[in-house]
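Dear support,

We are seeing what looks like truncated structure output for some complexes. This example has three components. We would appreciate it if you could run it in full and send us the complete token output so we can diff it against ours.
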Amino acid sequence: MIVPYGHVLLLAGILFVLGLVCAVARRNLVMVLLGVEIMLNAAGIAFVGAALRWQQLEGQVFVLFIMTIAAAEVSVGLALIVRAYRRTGSIDQNTYDLLKW
Amino acid sequence: MTLYALIFYVLAAVIVVATLVAVTRRNLVHAVVYLIISFFGTAMVYYLLGAPFLGILEVIIYAGAIMVLFLFIIMMLRVERKAEHRFSLGQWLPAALVGLAFLVLVGLLVLTDPGAGAALTAATVSPRVFGRFLFQRYWLAVEIVSFLLLIVLIGALFLGRAPERRPTGGREGDS
Amino acid sequence: MNWGLFIPELYYLAVCGILLLLSMVVKPNPRRDLVSVLFFAALGVAVCLASVRLEGTLFAAAYRVDLFSQVFKVILAVGFLLVVSLCTELNGIDEGHHLEFYLLLTTCTVAMMLLVSSVELLTIYVALELSSYSLYLLVPLRRGHDAAVEAGIKYLLVGTSASAVMLFGFACLYGVIHTTQVAEIVRVLPGMLGQPVATIGLLLAFCGFFFKLAVFPFHFWAPGVYQGAANQVTAFIATASKVAAIAILMRIVALSGGGDAYLVKVLVTLSIASMTLGNLVAIRQKDMKRLLAYSTVAHAGYVLIGLLSFSPSGYASTIFYAFAYLVMKFTCFLVLVKVAADGSDLQIAQLAGLHRRSPLLAMALMVGVFGLAGIPPTVGFAGKFLLFTAAIEKGHLALVFIAMINVVISLYYYLLVVKAAYLLEPDEDRPRIRLSAPITLLLWVLVTVIVAAGIFPAYLLEVADAAARALLGL
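Here is the complete output from our reference environment:
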């Protein structure tokens, strides 16, 4: 046996919280996107651990799709950030205040 | 403590420390590089937990393509070193406190869960079996994702273009 | 595999393919583009209506076609047709990009149709992402407004965070229950909700759908995105996208079987918070789209009331309300698009003197807004009545009382809109608004539906009931 399933879930949980804090607390748009990447990666670890627990392949297939969609998200996100940067010259969230929350 | 368990704990420590350092960097390039280290660790964890194909894909796609794309864009944007001034305590403290609270909660819940003690017996899956399973059971999801990638390709192409001159009414504004 | 079950989706996928080809090959011509897409959309509604009675499963039990999903596909097809009919003068979008705009709208529609039929966590996730990404790409597509890109970034970042949270919930659920099939989870999860990981997984899994529906506390993207996007895009997000979110939330909520008191408490809290917050903040809005955004948040709260009743009548009332909401919200957006014909953001003050500029538009606005407020004899009143009855049957008296207070609060800002249209006088004389014959016909049809379905809701209610029973597999 490798480790109890709870330990893998704990690792995933720690990474998830780190990613969430990064996505919520950082003002730099690129760092927010990195935070989302960390969260998706954490979900991936949780899925692979669950797949090993039940000795099934569904969890691993899920991770494949998570990676694909993460790649898609990064391309769209960075394209948007580049476009916004070209107009305003900054990637700090505080300069984007045309729309109130 | 078996060898596998030892490897897992070492990798887990590397991943968590690398991610923690990445999250707190002010220099974006440093953050991305630490995150690449973290993703390499994740790839090795996947290999350990019986998913060698996913481990390789993690290195190729996540660390190799996504993070490199980040680096390209960061260098293209020419952000000044001081872009994000020193982290104001008012901004960081609530987030860090809430994060810590979440962490404690997650730890308690996970470790008191009756299913948490389930043993993970070492097993591994060859890419051939994985591929067959993927296309037999999840063919619809594969098709949907390929459509998604097409749409995102068109969209990213359009959004990332240099600002067009005012269109002359012709087709030069098209993708 | 019976491909006949998949016909509506195949049709819309073919339309996407045609639009993709056209956008690469043909010179843009707004008139011709609009007419062809209108034709495709109308044909699509016919195709969906023809396939309402289909039943079966496809793709290794990942996809279920039943009355519930087919009814929602009809509603989505109608929503798509209605939004396309708004696009007669698409001033918000660059002239060369109309075909791409229609392509993204069609993609979102097909993705939502795939979503309402998915019964397996991975397919749900992937279909949800496809619909979200087409919307993330639609929002920045606005011409001449810098706020659109900012709105697009905010929408993307909040949306992907919510989706990542939902994924972690799915991972917890999969770790506890060894399958990703929704039917299996429905069988097994109610017994397992004593385990903390299972409950956390379920709550996190809700987050993605709460984001799409704009429930508190995942509502804060709505005002900015509604204001920043082009008017037609906002109309689509506000109507069709919400209907899809309601459908998938119903499938997922039916997962828990309704036995867990803690879950019901959470839903009650979120419902109260959404309603109250949405209604209170809407009072202060001067921009029409922002007002409609907060109204959407409040309506998400009402919809949750129907969901947390966990009974067939609760689900039926939610389905009925979803259709009613689509029609009423769309009427408001139709008036908005016609008054702000240059594609700009409409301020409430700009509605002044509307009863003189176009009596039909003013009346349609009044009927739509009264419907949203829930004034008899509109279909909005019938929908709210059904929702509240289903909740009272389950003993949620305090919740219904708070909801009724909220209805009164919402009446205030809806009446502000009507007052602007009828009683306020504009500073300078504004020209009459000429409406084309099809739009006039559409307005009359919408007004008739809102009032008639309010007085005679029996037929629609029967359909909703049958769909709810199909959802529960009865």
